[in-house]
Amino acid sequence: MKNTFFANSFEQDVYNLVRAIPEGRVTSYGAIANALGAAGASRRVGWVLNKSFGAVPSVPAHRVVNRVGMLTGAGHFPPGREMAAQLRSEGVVIENNAVVDFETRFWNPMTDL
DNA sequence: CATCTGACCTAGT
DNA sequence: AACTAGGCCAGAT
Predict the structure, then answer these.
(1) Where are the domains of chain A?
(2) Could you read off the pLDDT of A92-107 as tens digits, one per residue?
(3) Which end of chain A is more exposed for a tag (fewer CB within 10 A), N or C?
(4) What is the distance in angstroms measured between the alpha-carbon CA of A46 and the sugar C1' of B1?
(5) Percent helix, strand and coil across chain A, each rounded to 5?
């Protein structure tokens, strides 16, 4: 389905979609890109999220992981806002830099949005 | 201006 | 089923 937001810019779309992720849920870069109609541009999503730290309101980028559920971007998170820490605060169990029961915690933008 | 790398994903072996 | 290789878009060197 098409986003109810507006496609003013790719980064804006990514921001809105990531902000729409419910607490305690996670999604993947590919799902976001696909939901935005930019299938295959999953790398771009990651790059957009990289600069999303300075954006306001804060973008819960910690809820975005790769397809396997690994916190690949944990090392790029600023100090005090580590991925695993925030996810744990939301009730998500992290084991070895990966989300436990990722498929259960997975949130599909197109389906649930 | 050409090349490489990177918060990835899909497909082939 | 696990591993390797290729493809994708954008920024950095």
Answers:
(1) 10-106
(2) 999 999 999 999 999 9
(3) N
(4) 26
(5) 45, 10, 45
